[in-house]
Amino acid sequence: MSNTPTYTDFLNKLHTILSLSVKALRRNGCLVLLIGDFRKKGVYTYIARDIRDPENTRLIQEIIKIQHNVKSNLKKYKSEIIRIMHEHVLIWKKGSV
Question: Measured at the alpha carbon of residue 51, what is the angle toward residues 49 and 52, in degrees to the nearest 5?
Fold first, then answer.
């Protein structure tokens, strides 16, 4: 998925995967996704904002998880950017729409 040509293609593929995952859940089951944001050419992308709720689910929780041992801490940057030090844990519940 990380080699998907465009961000829109990535989101579409992710939505397909989430929808198929929901079909495997029992009613009132939970679907959990751990996903991180990214920065490319200085542009920050907040992925969680762009993820659509899979059909027949409701987002019940978003947890911000701190990342440890981040590789970007070892890299030297020309500008003083704030490194991405977190990930999002998104939790949907099936059949609670």
Answer: 120
